């Protein structure tokens, strides 16, 4: 049984799992930055990841909760999610900074640890938001965001 999201954070997780950029655009705040860039650029990068995942055909998507396991990262011990494509054997780890159900920031994590130890994603392809190329509106130029 699927429950209806009651907070912005729950809705963001739901629409990330559904890979629904349009709904994420509606519910994320316009005046915030995500992964140190504007909402528009962040969503373009996230949509590029979603397109990559969809290219592998029908997906079996799941979201698992976890945290940044780094001892050096400023995001260490912060909670987040791993969007896992079980059929395509790929995943994207995201930290979600949340306060009172409101999303303050979202960024990818390279040292993510799943709470569920029964999920084994060794051998899966890790996806990175900063790997994808975006096109700046009103420009013919493409930029690699690294």
Kindly summarize this structure in a few lines.
By secondary structure, the chain is of the alpha+beta class. The protein has three helices and ten strands.
Based on secondary structure, the structural category is: alpha+beta
Helix content: 10-25%
Rounded mean pLDDT score: 87
Categorize the overall geometry: globular
Number of helices: 3
Which regions have little confidence, pLDDT < 50, spanning 5+ residues?
Answer: 139-146
Which percent band covers the strand fraction?
Answer: 25-35%
Topology summary:
Blueprint lengths: L7 H10 L3 H7 L5 E2 L2 E2 H16 L6 E8 L10 E7 L4 E10 L2 E7 L3 E3 L10 E2 L6 E3 L6 E3 L2
Parallel strand pairs: 5-8
Antiparallel strand pairs: 1-2, 3-4, 3-7, 4-5, 5-6, 9-10
Helix pairs in contact: 1-2
Give a structural overview.
- The strands form 3 sheets. Strands 3, 4, 5, 6, 7 and 8 form a 6-stranded mixed β-sheet that branches. A two-stranded antiparallel ribbon has the order 1-2. It has a two-stranded antiparallel ribbon with strand order 9-10.
- Mean pLDDT is 87; it is low at 139-146.
- The protein is built from 3 helices and 10 strands; from the N terminus they run ααββαββββββββ.
- The chain is of the alpha+beta class and 146 residues long.
